[in-house]
């Protein structure tokens, strides 16, 4: 059975802390996500996301601090704008922009991050394998 490969770029202060809390709470989420801890989602470049697809990812999640709570002032807003523009570019190229998810989670929202990952995994499963990076 095919299982999607998902990459998650998670902010050190909120997204990653929420995933850590989910583990402490022994909450389960799909094991097919590979988490990459970044200091701020504002540092995630669209090239990183495109590279993930080129290397075989079927979906990419970027999860940062809630609006107004970024530890680096406005990094989460910059990330949101970058993701928005990347999704527009993907649409122009005829690619499925729904393979990218951008969301917020605070350090205390372990259950929220579990639900985000589960819902995104279901969405990617329904879409099937990514046409990018496949030979």
Short characterization:
With 135 residues, the chain is α/β, with parallel strands linked by helices. It contains four helices and four strands, in the order βαβαβαβα. The protein is globular and about 35 Å long.
Spell out the blueprint of helices and strands.
Blueprint: E1 6-11, H1 15-24, E2 33-38, H2 46-54, E3 59-64, H3 75-92, E4 100-104, H4 110-127
Parallel strand pairs: 1-2, 1-3, 3-4
Helix pairs in contact: 1-4
Description:
- With 135 residues, this protein is of the alpha/beta class.
- The chain has one domain: 3-Layer(aba) Sandwich (Rossmann fold), CATH 3.40.50.
- It is built from four helices and four strands.
- Strands 2-1-3-4 form a four-stranded parallel beta sheet, sandwiched between helices.
- α1 packs across α4.
The profile of the biggest β sheet is: 4 strands, parallel
Instruction: Name the strands of the widest sheet in spatial order.
Output: 2-1-3-4
Per CATH, what is the topology? Answer: Rossmann fold
Number of domains: 1
Give the key terms.
single chain; about 140 residues; alpha/beta; Rossmann fold; four-stranded parallel β-sheet; 4 strands; globular
């Amino acid at each position: 059975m095919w299982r999607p490969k998902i990459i998650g770029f998670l902010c050190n202060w909120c997204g990653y802390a929420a995933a850590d809390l989910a583990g402490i709470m022994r909450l389960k989420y799909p094991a097919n996500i590979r988490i990459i801890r970044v200091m701020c989602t504002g540092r995630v470049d669209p090239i990183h996301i495109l590279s993930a697809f080129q290397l075989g990812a079927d979906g990419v999640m970027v999860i940062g601090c809630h609006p107004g709570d970024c530890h680096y002032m406005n990094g989460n807003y910059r990330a949101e704008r970058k993701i928005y523009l990347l999704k527009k570019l993907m649409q122009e190229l005829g690619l499925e922009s729904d393979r990218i998810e951008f969301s917020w989670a605070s350090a205390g929202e372990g259950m929220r991050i579990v639900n985000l990952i589960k819902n995104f995994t279901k969405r990617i499963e329904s879409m099937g394998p990514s046409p990018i990076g496949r030979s």
